[in-house]
Model the fold of this input.
Amino acid sequence: MTTFKREFQFENNIMTKVSKNIKKYRKVAGITQEQLAVDVGLSYDFIRRLEYKKGSIGCSIDTLYKISVVLGITMDKFFE
Done:
């Protein structure tokens, strides 16, 4: 069986998009950064940096899942 390299277009910094969408959907839900932090069990500072560092810090899939549950959206919305 021959294997060959396929070509794909990957986002340079997907976390930039994710961080912007976390902020967007948090505001749509009418939730403060402080409340989101409490609801997902993280520090306020982590949520603040996640939103405002524009992707320079990352987070786990588990954290994204918890944030999506609190915001009432599916995880795919973070990547749109």
Remarks:
- Residues 14-79 form a domain with the 434 Repressor (Amino-terminal Domain) fold (CATH 1.10.260.40).
- The chain has four helices and no strands.
